[in-house]
Amino acid sequence: MSFVAGLSRPLNADAPKEEEPKANVVKKTPPDPAVDKAALDRVITMWSESKNTFFRNKWLGLPTLQNPMDVWVTQEIMFETKPDFIVEAGTFVGGSAALWATILAQINPKGRVITIDVVDRMAEARKLPIVKRHVDFLLGSSTDDKVVKEVKRRVKGHSAMVILDSLHTKEHVLNELHAYAPIIPVGGYLIVQDAFLNGHPAPEGWGPGPYEAVEEFLKESNNFVSDRDRERLMITFNPTGFLKRVK
Predict the structure, then answer these.
(1) The model's pTM
(2) In sequence order, which ranges of the chain are alpha helices (DSSP H)?
(3) pLDDT band at 35, cuts 50/70/90?
(4) 56, 145 in Cβ contact below 8 A?
(5) Integer-rounded Cα radius of gyration of the chain
(6) What was the pLDDT predicted at 209?
(7) Is residue 4 part of a domain?
């Protein structure tokens, strides 16, 4: 999970102007008229920047830099789609891999998590029984051809769900989308995390990132839609990032 690195290295590029919603974006649940969007945006920004909120989150004792609202929605998707594999790009110390594995084991006892990172910080995570039984770690970039081929080899003939949470630049995320979209079955999900960066609503100045990668990907592909009903809990770090394969 490279969210911290993403925050500490601004890309210094202007955010693109907002465009009209694309035809292949699932319509969001009608907004609650009582919700003050500006106030909500401020809450999300303050909540994401505070060192006293999700930065302190742990799962089974491991630092796990996840938004609990998005975790809740993700586990709902996991239960509905019952994947054989969760492919996670961005391991950090393995907290989120342990989290996904804990949930997946209840849904699909034979399911496995494949987690990928350029640095191996999994020493503590490997001590956990759930990680020993259900998690495989691949060392390397999530966009490296060898890594992509190995993931595809392992999931061939099985259903997969992908969670992108590594380097938060537009180029990298778009390359990940191109690499892993083919392994998602119809009805399955590819989740792009931290699309709230660069003015969505976190302050601008980080440069094009996950949000812009999703925009471009949806222009190129009619196979996926952005399922914005998955943002129903409002405090999300993944605006437009819950991508559902429809064909």
Answers:
(1) 0.87
(2) 3-8, 37-49, 68-81, 95-107, 129-134, 145-155, 170-180, 210-220
(3) confident
(4) no
(5) 17
(6) 97
(7) no
Q: Tens of pLDDT along 72-103?
A: 999 999 999 999 999 999 999 999 999 999 99
Band of pLDDT at residue 19, cut at 50, 70 and 90? very low
Q: What is the number of residues in the chain?
A: 247
Our CA dihedral for 146, 207, 66, 116, rounded to 10 degrees, sits at 10
Report DSSP state, residue 64. -
- The number of distinct structural domains making up the chain is 1
Cα–Cα distance measured from residue 214 to residue 64, given in angstroms and rounded to the nearest whole number: 24
**Domain span at residue 84?**
33-245
**pLDDT on residue 203:** 86
Tell me the average pLDDT across 189-211: 94
Is residue 41 situated within a structural domain? Answer: yes
CA distance 65 to 55: 6
Task: Determine, yes or no, domain membership for 39.
Answer: yes
Cβ-in-10-Å burial (0-12, 13-18, 19+) of 11 comes to middle
The answer to whether residue 2 sits within a structural domain is: no
Whether the per-residue pLDDT at 23 is higher than 80: the answer is no
CATH of the domain at 85: 3.40.50.150
The two structure tokens encoding residue 84: 């054989």
Q: Is the C-alpha dihedral spanning 6, 52, 236, 95 positive or negative?
A: positive
Name the nearest CA neighbour of 25 among 235, 211, 236.
211
Taking residue 18's Cβ as centre, other Cβ atoms within 10 Å add up to 9
